Protein 1
Amino acid sequence: MNDAESIVELIPRLRRYARALAGERTAADDLVQDTLERAWSKLHLYRRGTDLRAWLFTVMHNVYVNQRRAARPSISLDEEMPELAQPVGETDTLVLRDLDAAIRRLPPDQREVLLLVALEDMSYDEAAHALGIPIGTVMSRLARAREKLRAMLSGLPPGGGKQLKIVK
Amino acid sequence: MNDMEQGEADLKALSQALHQLYDPILEEPVPARLHARPRRWRAIAIAAGWVVAGICVGALAGWQLHASRSMVALQTEVPGFVKRAAVAHATYSPEVRHPVEVGADQEQHLVAWLSKRLGAQVRAPKLDAIGYNLVGGRLLPGDNGPVAHFMYQTEKGRRITLYVRTEATENRETAFRYATEGNVKVFYWIDRKLGYALSSADLGRDDLIKVANAVYQQLNP
């Protein structure tokens, strides 16, 4: 299978990640389309034998960052994080719809890390490479994302729930 | 359970929930716009298509003027799926009451279903611009697994069918080739994972190749 075919094969994976990242379907497919256009034009920069999927996620990350930079400044979700209307009481029962809404409310940096690790099953190292950040940053962003998710889904203020210890 | 184990269990639960949430997207048909290849590649593919189509037409003209020997040589190379496509066309296109299994009114379902069964993304090209409206489609048995079969017709009821099968070797791209099978004329080509055969009994080859080009361009926007 050549690179071009491998890219085509990976389109569903890119769409899944983009939808989780960008939310709305059209915006997500726009992100995929921009990513693919960039990937096709930069294919000569891809080193054969390395992980094509990781490379494509890096391209998507860069496109996503540029799109956000170009968009009007948004409210910092770090500060503005209203509780969901109906917090889920039971700790183990994640209501998927609420989870989706909660993912949307994460700051984009943390959302990316969370999705690469928990949805795309990347190792911390792979996620660090894909995003071009140190592995420690991956771990701290992931921890913050999980803490916020837990807070949103349980209706507790961030930091009020059980803390996750990061083992380095 | 200590905190670290608890943390890993939480992460695993979260991961499962995320997969439940977003995995259905993997099964969605990929929008056509995402299949667009770079302009350079497309230009080459289309140009190659035209060149070989030109050779085919030239060969046919030659065959008409001279003897049938060269055409016989071509005929022996016709792949089995082209014959199957021609037979399917001859079987279903005269059908009045049940020409298709799923009608064009359920196009999205039809395409999703056929894609699922073929294990590859298939699409029903839109040919309304050249006067062919989708009637619907059906699933057929092929020599290589399930086959998708789309039917189109003009307002006057002229029908063409598009036979789409998965290719055993996924790495090929061929341009248009032409064959006849009884009174059915077929243009066929292979595009990456899928093999296509466009059949008609009542179109001339010049008209049929125009349709074949429209189909190709729809599938490779």
Protein 2
Amino acid sequence: MKTLVIGVGNLLRCDDGVGIHVVDRLNEVAPHIDTLDVALGSIEILEAMRGRDRVFIVDAIQTGGEPGTIYRVNLSGGEEPPRITHSHGVDLLTTLKLGNSLFPGQMPREMILLAVEAEDVTTLSESCTSKVQASVDKVMEIILGFEKNE
Amino acid sequence: MRTITIDPITRLEGHGKITIFLNKQGNVENAYLQIPELRGFERFCEGRRAEDMPIITPRICGVCPVAHHFAATKALDAAYGVEPTETAKKLRELMYVGYYIYDHILHFYFLGGPDFVVGPDAPPAERNIFGVLKRVGLDVGREVIKHRAYGQKITEIIGGKATHPTCGLPGGISKGLNEEERLQIEEMARSSVEFAKFTLSIFNDVVLGNKKYVDLILSDPYQLDTYNMGLVDVNNHVNFYDGDVRVTNQEGEEFDRFQAKEYLGHIAEHVEPWTYSKFTYLKKVGWNGLTDGPESGVYRVGPLGRLNAADGMATPLANAEYRRMFETLGGKPVGSTLAFHWARLVELLYASERALELSRDPGITKTDLRNPVNEPGEGVGIVEAARGVLVHHYKLNKEGLVDKVNLIVATTNNYADICMSVRDAAKGLIKNGEVNDGLLNMVEMAFRAYDPCFGCSTHSLPGTAPLTVEIYDSHRNLYRKIER
């Protein structure tokens, strides 16, 4: 099983960096899992996803919910991701749609979005707020749980 | 008075807001562009170790990390009074043109191109990459993805990580290139030259072959008559990585020229109460409001600014395209905002040719990677980010910690131009209260041509439409709201 974990976010923008923190932690505790840390999660992740069996995308989100809440969306199962617009490139849904039309059969069989409710994405800080920080290990457990069940 | 607000602008990093004020007749009285500013970043850096700056600053923005990385590295070269080795300079430049390859490809096919390839007044649902692929075919789509990835791979081979490079050190670079990697880059660069030529042929067929588009490019609402600024080499050819900052005037003649360390004597900043972002202008001319012409210190940067500020390109194919562009558009300087798209493709060809040249340079695999540094002091580094002149200025204390930081980013240099372009397009296109989707997109095109970047990668709220148009009545009550 070829797994890739993609952390998306801006490390300097407090909770926006939660995906990057997850990737950093995974690199420490599970170095056998491939990771990628990106700021935009746009076309740049398309190439990285090709040929993988399973991809996790970890990103920050703001829906007005309780900070630190983890939302799990099965993208390969046809569930629509929440609208996360990275307007400089293209959004995640467009990226996946593009991947499926240009590279049929090469996109991952399983694509899971793990979105963490952020509290603060504007303060310049390399650390998350405490509730969001607490979710880092939980997100990691979800990912490792999948891997263990192989 | 009615107010139309376009917020946020689609297909651009960060959030911006265009507000258009209509008079009673329904014509545009004025239009404003507000952009968010990354406030407090300078203070955030103070007290950090100098060598951390090339690692931290690329994190400001996911769009131009390589530009920040090398502006920071060059500022440290200057602050430590050290000249990088010849090999390090070549490797830095090779990595830098790799960044241009992926950046410019993304802009043409995904961000700017849909307006032309699909059409400026096509329905928004088709005016995107899928609309482009419908016209150019899926095979071309695969080539787009492949060559964008090539640019990224070149930066990754040299930089360690594609999006967050770590290779730049004061006086040099941390890692050299082996023969196997060199061959890999040479092959990707060779392929990129062909792809750049192909992309220019699409532009030629689709845009230049259509009189309607050429007329649009040359039409009044998209013209600005400003000064132009860009880095040039000793032959006054465009250089992305290094050189003198050259300013040309409305006649295309050299008006000002300076080195990085002299920038404060030539560029000043102006503040307006209605926006957080500052406006830069030429000190020699002064700030004269949001106007163009020789009496206004406003200048343009980015692809068109660079080509206007230079006398040519340093590689043969790109130089031929450079000449063709200016001949077709009526000679230098070109003031048309929409010509940014053509200029960007000329630069894509140059970046690809330059990558090929450098990959074949016999010195590129040498191992003289770093010169020893001197005592820390003060330094300025200037590079051409894909979007224009980028300045990093640091003052270090004697322990090598950062005391003071000043950054001028490309979008700030172009801010006055973008505001004027949006205003002029709105005034020229919106008449008698007729505001439809196609017209608003054509106003946005004035803005999108600059490919502005707002220096952050915060996400919009889920469920928020990427484009909202709000029209207010003369009492500023919401009169109409359009969401796309």
